[in-house]
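Forgive a beginner's question, but would it be possible to get a protein, spelled out as residues, together with the matching structure tokens, please?
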Amino acid sequence: MPAIPMKGARVPAPRNPRPDGLATRQHLLDTAGRVFAERGYANTTSKEICERAGAPLAAVNYHFGGRYGLYEAVLLEAHRQMASLEDVVRITQGPGTPRQRMRNVMSYVIGLATRPSAWGMRVLLREVVSPSAAVSTLVDKAIKPKAALLFALIGEILGLPADHPAVQRAFAFTLLPVFMLLMAPRQIASRMIPGVVDGGAELEADLLRYVMAGLDAMARAYR
């Protein structure tokens, strides 16, 4: 049973993180992101990260509980760099019809290709190619909350519940190929499919035609 403070006793206020502590944590996170992007999780040590960050080795344990906790935080930040939950909420639940909001989603996804990423895309690519134990954290904490919003939007367009298998398939057909394209090494994609990599406004227009026609066809089929 928790102790009850005596009458008149001062109860200490919760301590907020010190600004310098938050700055150290962020610096470690950014440094680790760059190192993991270059070398991968298996080939990176806490010592190397701390040396490059100019921080004591104990800082990794203090802020993240160890190298694995640091890598989990890096994966979550990498996915946030690619698409933040706030952005996905704003687009999927914003004004307009479901079809208009879906068009906004696709425009946003295409825009990711031209938006510079500090190191996040390279970290995610390494994780996709060689998944670690931390992939479950990435899925549960970063991917699923955003996917749920997209399932709901696609369900509106198809006239189906968000958990319907057809909604899941529509999500896969619509978004997964685009994300894989974004994660493909540019030097390979430029040689194989330059009309996609350098498509500009025409790429966005054609993708919207393709996606919306497919969703409309599925909606008709399931009505």
Q: What stands out?
A: The two ends are 58 Å apart (CA to CA).
